[in-house]
Amino acid sequence: MKSLAALLRQSGEPLPYATTRPLEIVEVDLAPPGAGEVLIKIESAGICHSDLSVVNGTRPRPLPLVAGHESAGVVVEIGAGVKGLKVGDHVTSVFLPSCGKCAECTTGTPAFCSVGASSNARGEMISGGSRISFNGTPVSHYNGVSCYSQYAVLDERSLIKLPEDIPFDIAALFGCALLTGIGAVRNSAHAKAGQSLGVWGLGGVGLSALIGAVISQASPIFAIDPVASKRELALELGADFALDPNENLRDHLPAGVLVAIECAGRADTLKAAYEATSRGGTTVTVGLPPATEMLSISALSLVSDVKTIRGSYLGSANPRVDIPEFVDFWRAGKLPVEKLLTSVSPMAQVNEAMDALQSAQVVRQVIHPHSGVWALENS
Ligand SMILES: [Zn+2]
Ligand SMILES: [Zn+2]
Q1: Which one of the ligands is nearest to 107 CA?
Q2: Which of 121, 263, 315, 379 has the greatest number of beta carbons closer than 10 A?
C-alpha cells in the first residue's frame, strides 16, 4: 500500500532544517505485514532527540530511512501467526523489539535484546529485511518503528497493546520518553523514598525521569537545565529545586545527591552529574552523546567515594511490565504527560519540529501523519 512518510536520504544537512528540509514527505510503498507483523495506522508520533541525532548525523544509520521511533496508533491489518493483537487494537511502539529467545531476553533483560539491537543497527525488521520502499528501492526502518508515516509495518514484538481511553498523543510517549526516563529512575537507579535525586537535562526523557522521581517519592529532587521555562515546568511537576547548570547543587545539598540521572546526552553534563553525586551514590546516564565524546572524571573518587556509574538503555525496562504500569499511573493522575507536550503539528512540519528541538526550547512535540499534510506542503 501507499503511505506518506518522512524520508531521510542524507544526514548532516545544514540548519535550519525548515530551509534544507532533510526529511522529505514522500509517498512510500509498504509491503503487507509478514509473519508476526502488523500494519498500524499511526495517529501520533513523538519528536525525540535520537531522531534529531540521525538527521544531523551524530548517530549514523543506514539511509535512506523513514524516521520516527515513538508512536501510538491502531492495528489495521495482521500478518500470519500474530497472537497478541487484533484489528482495531490501540498500541504504542517500543524502539527495541525483544526477540524473546536470546540470552538477554531469557534472563529477564529484554531492554538489552541482542537480536533486536542488531536488526535496529542494520535498519531492518527483527525478522529481517525491509517492508518499506521508495521508487522501487528498499528503505531502512528506524529502530523497527519508522512512525513518521501514515502507516507502518511493525513486528508484534515492537508493540504494546493499550486500553482505548488513553489519548494517542499521551500513549505515543510511553514507548520512548517515559520508558527511558521513568525506567532510569526506577529500574536502573532503584531510587527509593527519601533519597536525594537530581535530573540533568529537562527534555522529554529528563522530565519523564523527574515524574519517575516523584512517583518514587525521592526527596529532595533537583532539576538542572539552562532553559528557564523548563526549570519552571520542573518545579510545577514536583522538583524541589530547579538550577541553572552554572549553579552549584552542593550549595543547596552539601553532600550531593544519592541518585543522579543524566539525560542531556553530553559528556560534560555527565561529568557534572557524577561530581554532584554523593558518597555511595549512583550516577545513571541515559542520554546518547556523539560517539567521539570521552568522559574524564577523577579515577580516585570512584573508589574513595564508593560511587557507581551506570548506563541505562530503554530504561532497563521490560516494556510488557512497565507500560501497563504507566497506564495505572496515568489513570491515578500520577503521569502528567500532557504537561510534557509542547506542540501538536501535522507531519509536514517535521523539519520545523527538528529545528525547535535543536534550539532546546521545547520539551516534547508530536506530529500527526494524517492531518493537513498536503495542504501544508502546497501552501
Ligand atoms: Zn527516543
Ligand atoms: Zn532477545
Answers
A1: 2
A2: 263
